[in-house]
Recover the amino acids of this structure.
């Protein structure tokens, strides 16, 4: 009986915690309703499609291929990213470049994003700094898998 | 003829009040839980791009539920399966007829009480109808012909029976203090003053009775601290085999029970429509001050007071639902049979001793 009464006090304290959260948050919501700006907000929600959270500096987002001066891809088709890729989602076809400084360029560079696990190994493997994952794009959902296969144009653009 | 018309108007008013409040309790539940948890809550439902903090959400929910498939399993007992949600809805909806919304008004020489049914046993009527709501649960559990729903239904029945006793006993002290079973008479009685300044509300005369009644009533609504019949997180409840609007009826029954319990607590323990020190002709403060009001304004004050009190208790019940985890089944039974019933008996004894002195 005494033990149960002890629980009872704790129960009341518990509801006081939630009630306090409610009241404090309501005060800030009402202040916002009247247009008064406060440093603290009533909710921690980020209203997603309208508001977006800033991505972290190291966030791995959609791949992009860097270019040389003149718009050609920096990639020399060395196949290191293809070797490093654990999901085997990169396909590169090399071709010969007339420029003796470059020698090879990718005729095809295809990433199948439906298989990609965004581990970033391709970025680490690349000796030419040709592929990066810093485009900041994270919304590329599609209705068909076909649309998730990105080729050279899409990756450079 | 006129009498019948008046009753119909009263029924329409009460039902509109009841159903609108039910509809918006679903909204309140979402919003309040969100604010408690530092979130914002449902605010996307809109009509032509206008979204007033999600106030259209209940309509979106209703439309969704109407257009869902109304699925009746082939192995269920079809008639009872269809009947069960209506039984449970009906017995809750009918309780509102006994709740007094305000003092009587006079129109053209007639006195009209703001209460649908003026019965001598309105308190018993409400309790009886609340208990009959169990049939909806057992029927749905049984008629679904599924072992898990049957277990859910039986758990619900066991829980409600064990709390029914405490619910009834906790009110006996109150009936002894205000010697009447008419809810309107109980509310009238609560307008008097205690020691010349304190309103004679049930909470001041029967604090223990209030605590027992409130706990038992919470168990009666079958919501989270006591949601053993349903147990939405892991146990499979009694309305597993329902979908669409029939499931919606069970959902609405839950919210309507909150309103009924709030109205009952308000009526019995917090003075119903009484505003402290407000008579039919205005305020008479205990210090001797007066603020006279026309009668219609006083009645408006009273109805507003009733609404505010009911709203507060709805808020409190949702707060409780979003604060506590669920009881274990044996803890629930212990609380009912070993704590609440002895406490209510002690309450009856204490009340009797104080009254006889």
């Amino acid at each position: 009986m005494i033990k149960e009464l002890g629980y009872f006090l704790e129960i009341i304290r518990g509801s006081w915690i939630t009630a306090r959260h409610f009241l404090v948050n309501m005060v800030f919501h009402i202040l916002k309703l009247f247009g008064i700006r406060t440093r603290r907000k009533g909710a921690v929600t980020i209203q997603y499609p309208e508001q977006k959270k800033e991505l972290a500096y190291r966030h791995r987002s959609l791949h992009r291929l860097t270019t040389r001066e003149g718009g050609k891809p920096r990639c020399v088709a060395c196949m290191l990213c293809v070797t490093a890729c654990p999901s085997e989602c990169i396909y590169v076809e090399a071709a010969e470049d007339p420029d003796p400084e470059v020698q090879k360029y990718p005729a095809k560079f295809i990433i199948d994003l439906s298989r990609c696990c965004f581990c970033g190994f391709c970025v680490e493997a690349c000796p030419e700094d040709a592929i990066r994952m810093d485009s900041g794009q994270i919304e590329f959902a599609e209705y068909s898998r076909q649309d998730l296969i990105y080729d050279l144009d899409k990756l450079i653009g | 003829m006129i009498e019948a018309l008046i009753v119909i108007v009263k029924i329409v008013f009460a039902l509109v009040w009841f159903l609108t409040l039910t509809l918006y309790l679903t909204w309140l539940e979402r919003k309040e839980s969100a604010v408690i948890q530092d979130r914002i809550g449902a605010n996307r439902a809109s009509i032509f791009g206008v979204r007033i903090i999600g106030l259209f959400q209940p309509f979106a929910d209703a439309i969704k539920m109407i257009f869902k498939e109304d699925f009746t399993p082939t192995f269920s007992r079809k008639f009872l399966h269809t009947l069960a949600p209506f039984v449970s809805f009906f017995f809750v909806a009918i309780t509102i007829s006994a709740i007094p919304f305000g003092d009587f008004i006079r129109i053209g020489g007639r006195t009209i009480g703001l209460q649908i049914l003026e019965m001598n046993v309105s308190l018993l009527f409400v309790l009886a109808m609340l208990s009959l709501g169990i049939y909806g649960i057992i029927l749905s559990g049984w008629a679904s012909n599924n072992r898990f729903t049957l277990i859910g239904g039986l758990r619900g029945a066991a829980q409600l029976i064990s709390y029914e006793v405490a619910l009834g006993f906790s009110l006996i002290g109150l009936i002894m203090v205000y010697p009447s079973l008419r809810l309107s008479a109980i509310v009238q009685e609560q307008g008097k003053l205690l020691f010349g300044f304190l309103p004679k509300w049930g909470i001041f005369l029967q604090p223990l009775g209030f605590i027992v009644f409130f706990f038992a009533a919470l168990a009666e609504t079958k919501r989270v601290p006591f949601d053993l019949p349903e147990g939405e997180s892991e146990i499979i409840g009694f309305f597993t085999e329902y979908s669409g609007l029939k499931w919606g009826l069970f959902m609405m029954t839950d919210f309507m029970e909150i309103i009924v319990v709030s109205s009952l607590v308000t009526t019995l323990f917090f003075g119903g429509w009484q505003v402290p020190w407000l008579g039919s002709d205005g305020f008479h403060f205990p210090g001797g001050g007066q603020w006279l009001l026309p009668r219609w304004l006083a009645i408006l004050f009273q109805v507003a007071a009733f609404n505010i009190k009911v709203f507060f208790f709805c808020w409190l019940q949702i707060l409780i639902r979003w604060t506590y985890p669920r009881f274990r089944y044996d803890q629930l039974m212990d609380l009912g049979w070993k704590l609440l019933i002895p406490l209510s008996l002690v309450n009856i004894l204490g009340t009797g001793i104080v009254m006889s002195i």
